[in-house]
Specification:
Blueprint (H helix, E strand, L loop, with lengths): L1 H14 L6 H18 L20 H5 L3 H15 L13 H11 L4 H15 L8 E6 L6 H12 L9 E5 H4 L6 H18 L3 E6 L6 H7 L17 E7 L3 H13 L9 H14 L3 H4 L1 H4 L5 E4 L5 H14 L6 H9 L3 E2 L6 E2 L6 H4 L6
Parallel strand pairs: 1-4, 1-5, 2-3, 3-4
Antiparallel strand pairs: 6-7
Keywords: Signal
InterPro entries: ClpA/B, P-loop_NTPase, TOR1A_C, Torsin
Pfam family, one: TOR1A_C
């Protein structure tokens, strides 16, 4: 009965746009009416849109009129109506055990990633008094799992995964394609990050192909990743920033190849073998990501190396692809799929040049 009484009140508030600046609050009441209608009454709702930039969420004009405490209180209120949430916000799940399980069972050939990512995320989640946002930089060849791990993180920290309104994906060449518009992009990016942080007590920002970002663009958001209590009255300390880059791929491959030539196990490669070399190559590389104050200010908490995948890992990826389609397979078929991939160095055919990215498409050639 409470909800049935509440809905007309929200609609009435929407109509009174001149009282207490209800021009903004009318947007809020519409937003929360839609939330209640979809999630409590299970009415006919519009489907989630894949493009995070098109999500129907309160605008910056709305949140600019509210204090951070009030907006947080408003979110806790509507979440308490939808379902009971231990986290205080139904959108945030922070399933660390699920994250550990997925990294262990779904990610192949990346023991360093499994260890470093889990340690970093778990430490950040368990420390609500962190003095800065968590910033991770993923490095390695295309197809080694950088995007895959970013999705695993989103899936376990948020109820709606990458579609959550607390998660935002930026692809450098797609969202910021023109260098001449960098000043415009700066304002748009700062506003997008600020709005997200005001909407969600814990946010995740993913920057794919980070090496293609203009240095001025990263420097524009550098304060949000620094050791500040707040920036213009907004705290960003509960944000997570992921940067995905191909920078350092050659260095990572050289280390893996050296271990193989010396007869050492791949699993014996440690962060001490890679992190300082990876940091140095990133600092010396071309591109906006390396030249930004993010690097010179030492604001990246962990450089996470993704090792090149071997033949055996490619077979495991192929098995996962078949299983995801509900198809049975055998060793011979898995071998055929793995053999169809390109490997380097050519004389040794050791590392998959394409990783696992193209396997879902590859197996189409082997289906009856």
């Amino acid at each position: 009965m409470f909800v049935r009484w509440l809905l007309p009140v929200l609609l009435a508030l929407s109509a009174e746009a001149n009282f207490f600046q209800f021009g903004s609050i009318s947007n809020a009441s519409t937003y929360y009416f839609n939330y209640i209608y979809c999630n409590i009454w299970e009415g006919e709702c519009q489907p989630n849109q894949d493009d995070a930039t098109q999500q129907a969420v309160p605008t910056s004009d709305l949140w600019a009129g509210f204090s951070h405490d009030y907006s947080s209180l408003l979110h806790q209120w509507y979440c308490s109506l939808g379902q009971c949430c231990d986290s205080g916000d139904c959108r945030i799940t922070n399933n660390i055990s699920g994250l550990a399980r997925d990294l262990k069972t779904k990610l192949h050939g990346q023991h360093l990633v499994q260890s470093v990512v889990l340690k970093a995320i778990q430490g950040f989640i368990n420390n609500p008094e962190s003095n800065k946002p968590l910033t991770l930089s993923f490095h390695g060849w295309s197809g080694t799992g950088k995007n895959f791990v970013a999705r695993i993180i989103a899936d376990n920290l948020y109820r709606d995964g990458v579609k959550s309104e607390c998660v935002r994906l930026f692809i450098a060449p797609f969202h910021f394609p023109h260098a001449r518009l960098v000043d415009t992009y700066k304002g748009q990016l700062r506003e997008a990050i600020r709005d997200m942080v005001l909407r969600c007590p814990q946010t995740l920002f993913i920057f794919d192909e980070a090496e293609k970002l203009h240095p001025g663009l990263i420097d524009a958001i550098k304060p949000y990743m620094d050791h500040y209590d707040n920036v213009d009255g907004v705290s960003y300390r509960r944000a997570i920033f992921l940067f995905l880059s191909n920078i350092g791929g050659a260095t990572i491959n050289d280390v893996a190849l050296d271990f193989w030539h010396s007869g050492q196990n791949r699993e014996d490669i440690g962060m001490e073998d890679l992190e300082h070399r990876l940091r140095a190559e990133t600092m010396e590389s071309h591109g906006g990501f390396a030249q930004s104050e993010l690097m010179s200010g030492h604001l990246i908490d962990f450089f996470v190396p993704f090792l090149p995948l071997e033949y055996r890992h490619v077979k495991l990826c192929a098995l996962d692809a078949y299983t995801a389609r509900g198809l049975e397979t055998d060793e011979a078929t898995l071998d055929e799929v793995a053999k169809a991939m390109l490997y380097v160095p050519k004389e040794e055919r050791l590392f998959s040049a394409q990783g696992c990215k193209s396997i879902p498409q590859r197996i189409n050639f082997f289906l009856p």
